[in-house]
Amino acid sequence: MGFYFAQLLTGLANASSLFLIASGLSIIFGVTRIVNFAHGSFYMVGAYLAYTLVTTLNAGIFGFWFSVIAAALIVGVVGLLIELTILRRIYRAPELFQLVATFGVVLIFQDGTLAIWGAEDLLGPRAPGLDRAVRIMGEPIPEYDLALICIGPAVLLGIWLLFHKTRWGVLVRAATQDREMVAALGVNQAWLFSAAFVLGAFLAGLGGALQIPREAASLQMDLSIIGEAFVVVVIGGMGSVTGAFVAAVLISVLNAFAILIFPQISIVLPFIVMAVVLIVRPYGLFGKPGSEHGGTEEPDQPLRLMSNQASMILFAAVAMLALSPVVVAEFTTILLVDVMVATLFAVSLHFMMGIGGMVSFGHAAYFGVGAYAAALSVKLLGFSMIPAMIFGPIAAAAAALFFGWFCVRLSGVYLAMLTMAAAQILWGVTFQWQDFTGGDDGILGVWPAKWASSDQVYFYIAFVLCIGGIWFLRRVAHSPFGYTLRGIRDSKTRAEAIGVDTKFHQWMGFTLAGALAGLAGVIFAFSKGSVFPDSLGIAQSIDGLIMVLLGGIHALAGPIFGAVAFVMIEDWVTRLEYWRFIFGGIILVVVLLAPDGIAGGVQRLLRAVMPTKKGDAA
Amino acid sequence: MSPVLSVRNLAKSFGGIKAVQDVNFDVGKGEFLALIGPNGAGKTTCFNMLNGYLKPNTGSVKLNGKELLGTPPRKIWRLGVGRTFQITETFLSMTVLENIQMALISYHRRVFDLFSRATRLYVDEAMALLDLVNMSEQAQRACSELAYGDLKRLELAIALAHEPALLLMDEPTAGMAPSERIALMALTAEIVEREGVSVVFTEHDMDVVFAHSHRILVLNRGELIAEGTGEEIRANATVQEVYLGGGTLFEEELAHA
């Protein structure tokens, strides 16, 4: 009995730090509608700062708590700077575009932290005055855990008082419900957004700082916490702080007990809980239907068929690509295959997000399933390359058919989060199921057939499949099927009122996008000769998301620009030291220069250049 | 002649509130029927039961003898009911013409066609529908650029795309300038007469109601309290009582009409 009680207390202590980071994330989303990927970075920096302050001051109980608060405050100031210099400039960009900027910040923080604190994990001292364990029902419980258990609810109370007893708090709650109305009432939104962002960053920094006596500060802290923090926010309901608290307790306590029965489950448990909650309550435990949408957005422009000029440029580009293996060096050929695979992946994601209006944070699931299905069919079923290449996309379509059925029941950010849960569950299973998938070691020796084994021949296989896939999706975008998907995105009510079965149609769109992502995965697997769990990991999903958003979600050419730029730049910068810093910087520059994505930026550039040309001719 | 739409014993309550109770009426072919009543009378509830968005507690709604209740909105549409919304619902990222083409594509059951060019399908039919509402010149404009009155006309053309037997129009002139209201309803009446469609509409603007409807139903507190032509309704003492409790505003409205 005592043991289980101790387990419960550990769960509650974990819940406190999870709550701190998640509440900040929830407040930021509620007010600004920014999905802040940099929140994990705030948490990490909070921990490192607290470590430095605590060890430098070395001044007992007072020094410890002073350091924790000071670290959190510094993180708050850092958050303010980010909000003022970057995010404030792009609030008018398409929904979710700000996410790209926060991802750039993540990269910069990773290398910044590495440069300042080094690669070693830093384990802080125990909290002075709370450094022993007390015996409760015969089990030793660290005093510090008990302190954390109190801090969580105390912070919740503090936020509650702030939100219900101050004018500012009322405005925050009002903005969470209806941003436009608050703006219409003459509230200075810029100031409100900054303040919410600072508060969120402060809470994340506090969560990180408080972890110091329990866990070493490490460079992996940011991404390891962010997934779980999102889960907590979504389960609680976007924008609900109370919801975040309940969800944090739910996840942490469930986890504390589940690992006793089935230790491997802790990786996927939060995502399973989230999936179940979202299926039962589509807006989370405390969320309200209205809270999923941001401000009104400019509608897309109607799709136009390409002009002759544009077709010719495109044709020339494809022809050049087709001829490239003859001219360029071998490693460039391999890089070009990577570019084509990424482009097909991005185009399939854009089909879902841009055309179908279904944002996915877990599109890598289908890329990975395609890759693994092909690899496993080679290894276990003895398939040769061509049958495996056919099997992969079918398996990916089947997975998309299964998860899509649940996902299309939701919308907006909740749908996105459910796709992420699906991907994380698949990733967890792949990672843990050593006997079948090889776990972390992956599956090796997935090589193309003999006739296709030279880099040049494989380039042409990839060329035909990728360009074919991209062409197909473009064709579908202009077809009645694609138009209907866009129609549903524009107005579900109208689509239903002209006889469209909206859910079924979206489900089919989801599946089609999954199948094509699977095709990209298959080509990828054979080009590398191996597959690893990374291929369906969250980083791969985010890469796709960045390609689509950075390229420009409102244009069919957007994902192509985005993917080509992303892979080329990544290939170039990863050779450099502190490449994340540089890559993050480049992303931020693009974001600030072209808030409508690269495609939008190129269009504006052309429009700026074209009239002068005409003028010259006349 | 058998009615196009026949509504029998329609009732709906929300908790203890009886929003609609025991409503019965028929709509004949080519009839232009107005459903009026003060705010909270149950017009919208009634309407949402006709178009499948709300499930009644009891009753039956038959379109040419086929039961509509329990049928989802998209199937009601397929049975031959077109509709427009109080706040327009259109595909804003498409052109005016494409909006109509979408309705035609769905009508011809081609939404799962993966290879045709959507913009090349049913162009002539779509243009003919735009002609009906005098919008053919705006065919290539982006729907998001249209004035509100034009959006209303576009919705009317969309609603006519599958040659419906019945049009349901929920406050068709809400949010429009007075002169636009009359013009839109005159246009609707003209089209309806030519095409032989029946119309049920709800409306707050009495000018519109009296000018065009063949018959008027008056709802109050969920019950039908009067039914008749414009003349009859104007003369009806109960209606005057309900609307304004004997106030003067109604007199003015009458003077206008």
UniProtKB/TrEMBL annotation, chain A:
Q: Which CDD domains match?
A: TM_PBP1_LivH_like, TM_PBP1_LivM_like
Q: Which Pfam families match?
A: BPD_transp_2
Instruction: Check the record and name the InterPro entries matching this protein.
Output: ABC_transp_permease (IPR001851), BCAA_transport_permease (IPR052157), LivM-like (IPR043428)
* Single GO term (MF): branched-chain amino acid transmembrane transporter activity
Protein localization: Cell membrane
Where are the bilayer-spanning segments? 12-35, 42-62, 68-87, 144-163, 190-210, 230-251, 257-280, 310-328, 388-406, 413-433, 457-473, 507-526, 546-569, 581-602
Q: What is its main location?
A: membrane
**What keywords sit in the KW lines?**
Amino-acid transport, Cell membrane, Membrane, Transmembrane, Transmembrane helix, Transport
Q: Which family does it belong to?
A: Belongs to the binding-protein-dependent transport system permease family. LivHM subfamily.
How is this protein named in the record?
ABC transporter permease
- Provide the taxonomic classification: Bacteria, Pseudomonadati, Pseudomonadota, Alphaproteobacteria, Rhodobacterales
TrEMBL record, chain B:
Q: Tell me which GO cellular component terms the UniProt record holds.
A: plasma membrane
Q: Which PROSITE patterns match?
A: ABC_TRANSPORTER_1 (PS00211), ABC_TRANSPORTER_2 (PS50893)
Q: Does the keyword DNA-binding apply?
A: no
What keywords is this UniProt entry annotated with?
ATP-binding, Nucleotide-binding, Transport
Q: Where is the ABC transporter domain?
A: 5-246
Extract the Pfam families matched here. ABC_tran, BCA_ABC_TP_C
Picking any one GO biological process from the record gives: L-valine import across plasma membrane
Q: Which residue windows are transmembrane per the record?
A: none
InterPro entries given in the database record: AAA+_ATPase (IPR003593), ABC_AA/LPS_Transport (IPR051120), ABC_transporter-like_ATP-bd (IPR003439), ABC_transporter-like_CS (IPR017871), BCA_ABC_TP_C (IPR032823), P-loop_NTPase (IPR027417)
**Gene Ontology molecular function:** ATP binding; ATP hydrolysis activity; L-isoleucine transmembrane transporter activity; L-phenylalanine transmembrane transporter activity; L-valine transmembrane transporter activity
Question: Gene3D superfamilies attached here?
Answer: P-loop containing nucleotide triphosphate hydrolases
Protein name (Swiss-Prot/TrEMBL): ABC transporter ATP-binding protein
